[in-house]
Predict the structure.
Amino acid sequence: MPTTQVSRLVRAPRSAVYQAFLDPSAIAAWRVPEGMSSQVHTFEGWEGGYFRISLTYHSPDEAGKSGGHTDTYHGRFVRLVPDEQVVEVVEFESADPALGGEMTMTTTLTDADGGTEVVILHEGLPESVSAADNETGTRMALDNLAKLLESR
């Protein structure tokens, strides 16, 4: 199964970046690629906590992984190291077996000149998910994260 890794400098302290991974309002604002909107259905921001989120395409031409124009996924936080690491296990909600299975997302935060280096490693991507598309979506989300935190 494919693996991707994307990094970006966010000009904000690690504590602020870490909190943006555990705040459902922040997640709805930043963890969504361009051309989509986000709805956080459930979010328990603690180790072992469950979350369920839908991303809906704005364009009626885009098909979602979960049906219609929506990608819905759920998961849990398996490891939280304050201001350093967030490990999530995530799974798409889809009837398509090619989209099944759990993915692991490990986010690592380190001090960098002028802010925080954010590295997101996706492991176990379903075979039908393009690694290039996953990287592009992750870059868009990290750009949103930077905009959200750097404007404060």
In short: The chain has one domain: 3-150.
